[in-house]
């Protein structure tokens, strides 16, 4: 037998011996040394005991969980030491220290007047350190404005995050000189809503914004062009569920409205027309077809457009629906 063969045989026997020892050790740990019963972990007392005879095999084991106990989800959240996740909705992304407004200590006791004055000074200096330069102050004001408008428009959290990212890009690319903070923030929110497929009309945005419609449209075009944002034209169908919900219409009307818009798209009459007006006209026409009549004034109030627009558009939509498709 050659030296190589002997060496390979020796290594294989050593490995098999090691595996057998590991198996025996694992088996001895999982079974009771007295009766051979199954061992279980008692996390409450930190012990490993035998399920059959009750022998304590190991004690004072390390508890890797928290030192506190919670009896419901709310209490668990209150005692958790994990902070909130980072978010672009805050100018510092939520990484800085925030001193609470409650004048109480860790035990819930009220602070003395001297301690309250001290905490107020600490809050003031903490706020000054959080916004140390003009860029951070600008960002803080704009993100607060975005959050306020998004709440008034009922936009989801994802749209607010996207709008914050767009505004941060505009700020880093130095697009703000010569434009108001409110104007760029409103344009960022309008662009984010259209990107997310939950658009709001310019009139709806203007109602909650501190800038007029002309400044909003001018700033929006500039931001989209400079940042190369890919935003598709607004789809009239994206407005239909919201309008139908505000008018308390059934799902049948919503479905029929989408069919009318789809037929109008195939007929080629959507180009160059306001998607809000088309959605409102489709809602009105579908409600008539489904015998759930609503007035033109009710639809115009919900969609924030004139009744004349609804009359003109719904006739075109009904004509496209009646015409045969090629």
TrEMBL record:
Domain of life: Archaea
Ranges of Basic and acidic residues composition bias in the record: 1-19
Stored NCBIfam families: PRK00423.1 (NF001658)
GO CC list: transcription preinitiation complex
Ranges for domain TFIIB-type: 27-58
Residues reported in the UniProt entry to bind Zn(2+): 32, 35, 50, 53
Residues in Sequence repeats: 144-227, 238-319
Protein name (record): Transcription initiation factor IIB
Entry-linked InterPro entries: Cyclin-like_dom (IPR013763), Cyclin-like_sf (IPR036915), TFIIB (IPR000812), TFIIB_arc (IPR023484), TFIIB_CS (IPR023486), TFIIB_cyclin (IPR013150), Znf_TFIIB (IPR013137)
GO molecular function: DNA-binding transcription factor activity; TBP-class protein binding; zinc ion binding
A Pfam entry, by short name: Zn_Ribbon_TF
Keywords: Metal-binding, Repeat, Transcription, Transcription regulation, Zinc, Zinc-finger
Swiss-Prot/TrEMBL GO biological process terms: transcription preinitiation complex assembly
Region called Disordered, residue ranges: 1-35
Homology family: Belongs to the TFIIB family.
